[in-house]
Protein 1
Amino acid sequence: MEPIRQSLHQVVKNCIEKQGSSERNCPHCGKVLKPIELFSEVIGKFQVTPVCKCEAEREMADIKRFERAKRNGEIHEYSDDDQMVRRATLAEYETAPGTIRGFQVIQDFTRGIKEWGTKGIYLFGENGLGKSHLLSAATKELRNHGISVVYTTAKLLIAHTRKPIGKWEYLNAYRAADVLIIDELGAEIPADWEMGELFTVLNGRQNRSPILYGSNFTVKELEARFNERQKGWGTRLMERIIESSVLEELTGDSRRFDLHIENTEQINRRLMKHD
């Protein structure tokens, strides 16, 4: 009985130390909180000031934020962030007539993800138009709002799920993330036995959580490429994407040559300083 009595005394002591036993005002709403008297057959009478409802709600919200941050951190360990575009942000994306709608759709997704529900985006177009930039920027933007995002490429996704060790951890992360981003879909065609791993991931999120895709190919071109490897695989993939995604095309001229010009001009300015 004595150990129980000591434990109860400690509990009461901790409670009083935390909440106090004198009248006070709630720091959030200003409500006057008066101490109440309680009685225990083990420790007798004692006074403690109750916590205000808004204090309790804020503390619970803090606990939930902490738990979510911890969960997101565990999920993000399975993201291939080294494949993302460094320093990519939505604010720094330079739009053009053929890319502005794609930018607006990605931006709307990051700002209103709850309204999007389980619907994702299939972003496609030629190389150099900024698909990876937009998807990388979306990853950062969503994470800044407490949303878990796993970014990977189709090639790495399949490689991770083919590992003898760690496969289930990756599959769980791909399934549990609030948003999964698969870039470079169709850049390489998986072998027959690898296609099953891709569909395992897609099926695990079907009608549950959104996927954002990046690809150089239209869904019809993607269908044809995958069907060349194994008849029917491409059609199944195309149907999954169409059913669960908004299709957005980026068009225009590649910006990569512009970057080459900028880099050349930059080094020229540096060399001129030495003349």
Protein 2
Amino acid sequence: MAQQVEDGPVASRKRFFDRPTTGKAVLVVAAYLAYYLLVSLAVGAVFGDEIDPDDPLATGAGIFFGLVLPIAIGAVTALGFTAFTGRLRSVFGAQPVRGRGWMWIGPALVVTAVVSHAASIEWSDWGPEQIALIALLGICVGLAEELASRGLPVLMLRGAGHSERFVMVVSSLLFALMHMVNVLSGMKPSTVLLTVVYAFGFGVCMYLTMHVTGTIWAAIILHAVTDPTTILASGGVDEAVTDHAGGWSLLGSAVTILMIVFSFVAVFLVRGGRRAPGGGGVWPGGPHPNK
């Protein structure tokens, strides 16, 4: 009986996730994205009458069914899948590597952008229901996207023996490429490209936030407040905050540019040598770094 268990699905799952590779990390991100798109299509097919395709933020029902529900399902699934792999504690636990002082620039830029966007919001343009649902959307986005790009994938990339520079660049690139699906919603290719570039910069800052604070929770929280303040300030999803004049709006635009520039500089500043594949203290079940 014991031998049958070892040769069954549980053993196969254990073997798959106990041997982390770059390809498997990419597969996790791709699988999440495909799942999210399928969920969005299913929700749209069932609740399409509640969603205004020209303005998904127009009503509370449109926000919930068009935006909140798909990403909420994605967040719950990402959380469940992480638990299924047995790495939930490792993802949400203390980071196995320490950050350096200059890395605080990343979260500082994000916080500055959030503050500038919040100060640019015309609160009278939004109803309480819209504000509450957009805030809920931010929480779901923060949890889902951080787990999908900087949760299990980062753990797997580190477990595969890659350097911190490689892990940061690849996880941020995967996060950025996820936003290419915006072209399916009719967004102009040029706008999608700009979104991908921004997402890479934001991804690097989120990675450094996780790195320097020692926990993915900091990245989740910062991500969770970034999207709502940007949406409320711009009046749309994936829109630039350019419609409001004044110092706060200009500051937000300047910080966004600085975030992108800083991310490329950070690629050359990050240090951290290669580890022994399968362990180095970063992949549960792998060899101890002193072994």
